[in-house]
């Protein structure tokens, strides 16, 4: 019995070390594979209960798994769509069959890193056929309500529809100083004109012209101005909005707006200091300033100074590149200097990372052992941030693998010696004569 158990233990040792040799071979072969997760062989002893006077060798069993929770070092590359997760978590991807499939029929996989490029359809994919997935960003820069426990709202990341874009102007902030001396008795009364370029919804440049006319008294100072707004997109001869602004010369709030009186048809909110203009392409908010506020238009004893006039929007632009930030937002960069977010790339996580099922191309899929998937925003919760221009190196340590290789070779030889010894002992038994 004990001899037979020794033979079985030796054979099990040979098989277990052969499995370990396979994991070492895989690790060494993929030492330069980006995103490769090291395979591990975990040995466990087996015990057979027997009598105290006779010991039976139970042998050894081996469990192999991918050490997915271990992360490799990130290296910088020159490609903006080389993407890696800096820490715990994986990127959502699918295969070629899932690109045109319904979300419920698509195979959702996870990838630690990938060198993505735009294919002939504009989809971002790797050379191994993994297509990047993300949540589409709406015009307000949000993703709305999405499912974080499944890929139901994920879409293949496609940049072909973003080759050209126009960004209409929706906000103008006025940072202007009006000369206080212009409202003194005897001043010329000459208005000050300020043209502001803006962009409509098809990328054309238009001009808003603001005319600041001082109210000149016969004596003293009025501190009052009439502001008229003209739009080149209309006939440009009649004002589209009009305000009467009065400034205070109090000790504490000198030069600030005292009152704003909008003309008929002009919309002004004194709580926010915003005048809303109805332009042909849509409403545009113009920050004039609220009474007593420190922003917007001021009246001080200084020259007319439109030094801080800002606006959003951009003319029609051609897509130059796409980049991803640490929050996982994939942004399109246009030659006009305009940037806008196209997709948000989430970071997937499961309770047991090592329970994920390994697939080809360094991809993984959810299994019963891994637990349920949750899609986090990058750099929130337990997951790391998303790094562009980066790839994750293999977690294989060549020096450690070569050391394990020597140990495995010695262990295999030792187990083979057990089998040989048991064989010789059995041979001696069969040679016994009565």
TrEMBL record:
What subcellular locations does the record give? Answer: Bacterial flagellum basal body
Spans traversing the lipid bilayer: none
Keywords tagged on the record:
Bacterial flagellum, Cell projection, Cilium, Flagellum
Q: Name one Pfam family in it.
A: Flg_bb_rod
Domain (Flagellar hook protein FlgE D2) ranges: 192-313
The domain of life for this entry's organism is Bacteria
Question: How far does the signal peptide extend, from start to end residue?
Answer: none
Asked if the keyword Amino-acid biosynthesis belongs to this entry, the reply reads: no
Residues forming the Flagellar basal-body/hook protein C-terminal domain are 393-432
Q: Which PROSITE patterns match?
A: FLAGELLA_BB_ROD
Question: What are the residue boundaries of the Flagellar basal body rod protein N-terminal domain, all occurrences included?
Answer: 7-37
Cited function: A flexible structure which links the flagellar filament to the drive apparatus in the basal body.
Q: Which family does it belong to?
A: Belongs to the flagella basal body rod proteins family.
What is the protein's given name?
Flagellar hook protein FlgE
Which organism was this protein described from? Henriciella marina
Instruction: Give the lineage.
Output: Bacteria, Pseudomonadati, Pseudomonadota, Alphaproteobacteria, Hyphomonadales
